[in-house]
Amino acid sequence: MSRITACLQNLKQQNKKALIPFITAGDPQLDASVVLMHTLAGNGADIIELGIPFSDPMADGPVIQLADERALENGVTTTHVLNMVKEFRQTNQETPIVLMGYLNPIEAYGYEQFAKDAAEAGVDGLIVVDLPPEAAAEPIKLFDAAGLDTIFLIAPTTSDKRIARIAASGRGYLYYVSLKGVTGAGHLDIDGVNSKLETIRKTTDLPIAVGFGIKDAETARLIGQNADGVVVGSALVKLIAEFQNDREAMLASVSEFTQSLRQGLDQ
Amino acid sequence: MSQNERDFLNTPDELGNFGPYGGRFVSETLMSALDELEEIYNKLSKDPEFQAAFDKDLAHYVGRPSPLYHAERWSKQLGGAQIYLKREDLNHTGAHKVNNTIGQALLAKYTGKRRVIAETGAGQHGVATATVAARLGLECEVFMGSEDVKRQSLNVYRMKLLGAKVNPVTSGTKTLKDAMNEALRDWVTNVDDTFYIIGTVAGPHPYPMLVRDFQCVIGREARSQCQEQTGRLPDALVACVGGGSNAIGLFHPFLSDESVTMYGVEAGGLGLASGQHAAPLCAGRPGVLHGNRTYLMEDGDGQIMHTHSVSAGLDYPGVGPEHSWLKDCGRVNYVAANDDEALSAFRTLTQVEGIMPALESSHALAYAAKLAPTMDKDQIIVVNLSGRGDKDILTVAEIDGISL
Asked: How far is B288 from chain A (nearest CA, A)?
């Protein structure tokens, strides 16, 4: 059983929801990411999504675009990202790590080599935003062979027929995109999310995490009532940007924010 | 006919693949909209009524057929092959772009969506989109890199006069690729009521196919006009390649004519060796961007690189996937013309033939000027004069140190 599946099963047994924060690797400084990952894990995160920066993040809103730009300015490479996971794993073997990004950096690295190096570094899963299941058959084989869960997105516009297809290709959990829009958009429709989750659950037993537009303890609590996990990205990345020049204040505010999300979910 | 030649004639396949290129690499939110577009297009493209409506608009609104003009004086000066110009610059709105926006606007009308969006580089596609939107009473928003807004201010004002909203894009390199990112972000957000009119033969399937089909009118006309005027097919075709829609439009109807050699001319910028260019087919490698797999300008880590060209319309790090496949098959030769060569061709054509070409098209002219002297006087080159140069007057004046 993968580290992701074990984590989610364990939470389910405790009747708890997964808190899944997202940060961009290499933002605001190269050496900040591992510290931030430990901070997240130490304050209630169950799974960490680590963004691989890309020059053209077409599914992301301005907050994560700017984070990618900062990280690339800092010179972050895919190898750096894998090394961050490796370093994190030296003292944390429990918290699953999911890398999230766009296809081109992975293609440039080479699928087979990437699968091997990511698994060795201690990565557990991958979300590739612009790789729909139709185009993913070959990469999934390589990722499966390396023991990496390929996690797919489902959107409000996804038809029932496609849900079945995506669920069949998905590993670990499904990521439901809560709104039509980019990351960090502000028009979350809780009832709409709940009704779509109901539809998805008719097709699959995979756990479902919900992301895009969840920005505080209250929205996390509301979404957590029906989802198996919530992903919080832009709100966290925005906080990191705000304190980018003061490491101590950044870690303090990230700790506080993560704890508040945890409390929201555990209510 | 070899296996390769058959391979490039019947593309794309059902999944939108041109050999290993093309496809549909987008976020999940857009998949259903693309499925819907593909379904509608497959139906309408076989519908004689739709084709008739398209042809009627091309004739009476765009002013087609565009002339095929024998540039006799210039040919004589060059002392080689006879150069014929396919005058897409004479289309309504001044470039080939309108062929495609007319077609996509008809699709948009059919879907009942009340809003259209577009990305634009030089502004020609933005103007062509704003034009058809005005005519159909559709809301129109155009995304344009803030660098391009500066260097193509005339077109920006044209779009505004036509009733479009122009959104300057300040992320990334602030040029065409970033405009396309922003248009995709808008589309994800407003997918229910918005039709995305992509301006070139790139993007996710079915765009490279349908934009090509709409632009093929260029090559079909050129083929029959050349036969009418000269009694034979041309020996060579030359067109500039940014995303590559004017080039594919000219080339495609000639692909099975083995005697016709084709040249796609990319923007060589300050020279391929300088790294300051926009020539992914000449100096890039395959990758995935904006929904399709194709040749890209990227660094070793898969990050998309900054591009440079004097012409905003060619300043793009990718290229339509069909061009990538035609390159690999060896059917089309891809070459580059530098900024200074294009500027020189711009001046020459203006002074020798009284035709002011767009800086984009000037790249094709620059290569034709090199090619013609290597050919015989009874041979024929057709150059796609994809747009007119009025929009570039400020750029050229600035290079000349003149403030207008």
From this structure: 5
